[in-house]
User: Fold this.
Amino acid sequence: MLLQNWWYTTLLGVDDPIQPPLATDIKADVVVVGAGMAGLSAALRLAESGHDIVLIDRNICGGSTTGKSAGFLTPDSELELSQILRRFGIEGARNLWQVPVKGIELITATVQKYGITCDLQTQDSLFVANDRSGVDDVHEEVVARKQLGYPVTAYTAAEVAGVLGSTRYHAGVRYSGTYGIDALRYCQGVKRVLLGRGVHIFESTEAHAIDDHTVRTHGGSVTAERIVVCADTPSRHFCHYADDVSPAETYLTISAPLTDRDVKALFPGDPLQCWDSDLIYSYWRLTGDRRILLGGGSMLSTYVRNAETSPRVAGHVVRKFRRKFPALANVEFLQYWPGLIDTTRDLFPTIIRDAQAPWVQFVLGCVGLPWAAFCGDFVGRHALDTEEQTDHVFFQYFRPDRRFLMPLWSEHVLGKPIVFALNNAWAKYYQVDVPARQRA
Ligand SMILES: Cc1cc2nc3c(=O)[nH]c(=O)nc-3n(C[C@H](O)[C@H](O)[C@H](O)COP(=O)(O)OP(=O)(O)OC[C@H]3O[C@@H](n4cnc5c(N)ncnc54)[C@H](O)[C@@H]3O)c2cc1C
Assistant:
């Protein structure tokens, strides 16, 4: 397998020239730092409301986490509905579930409105149980979806085998309203839209300091009424809240195109986007040209040995897949690539309106494209507060001083990877923020 991000090859022949780096001092209404899913969504919202916007990214638009992703557009990017329901009760879960659901709506509406070519696939989601405890997880998900009135189909092991070509899963839960995209081409498509709306975009431009109303880069600066930062892996001198996020690593592999027979062997019915019930789960779906996009990781690589590029972990993910789908044992996986996802301690994003500098907003730790799209759009809408916004409640959910299992200072004793791994597991499996007696 070749170490190479497949999505870059999908840009070949696409006529979206790289925007030259910033080389002078300029002014704008709003400067957006970071052009991943969150930053592009913020810039698009602001541009659509007629403001003078500058967007800068140290890479190309979408060139970091977003453009490495598997492009699953499903609400449960990392946290299942049942886990959010346990933490926040019905009202809170309903509020919070709106975040990724609206994120998906924003992305698909943008694709349609602007005719962006990004391999948008309508694919139901299927969460499958690897073992007994996975069956419990699947069951909890079914119950949670029913409790909130969301449509759902529950599968027994035999029924799973009817929609997924494997007899090795013990149960499954399926639902619709989910999609797959080539997120890098989506970002490049949004870049084209923004340029068409007069947004000034500077790629290969790294912000290294915020100084009052000015964002400084190596080649120039942008002075703006408002500053929106949607940057990943922020450094401490650039962002006071850099310690609030930590990267988790996941790997993707892509296969050669499947034959008709292989497609039927994998999905006897419609193609689905799937993931399993392991803590470090595997996930797979088909691209429009019928390649298997397969992702996963290991405990060690996810939290501890970030930025490992050897094929070891990807090879382990492929072997696990082949054990589950023996009929596809001969399918060749051609390329693999790792990627880092910034996470907060409880896997929810953090949105900050800096108390000392209220004109600066930060979006950090968006785990999942839909969450990032919503948060970017949200800060874009709130940046200038030109119209009445009704969803201030999300500033509360995503405030940096919300309740976590372990405080940041414990990193000095235990180390950041351990503190984040324990906090993540606690948030997923045990945390309760709204006790049962307060939920009525
Ligand atoms: C391998 C992999 C598979 C994934 N699969 C999925 C999936 O299938 N579905 C899903 O929902 N999520 C998936 N994710 C997670 C998803 O990609 C992220 O949650 C999402 O892309 C985060 O978007 P973002 O805009 O917050 O961050 P990013 O995409 O990282 O954007 C931040 C941007 O800021 C820029 N930047 C950083 N610092 C600076 C600076 N100082 N100056 C200027 N620019 C700066 C970066 O270059 C980058 O473009 C996956 C992630 C990976 C790595």
In short: The mean pLDDT is 94.
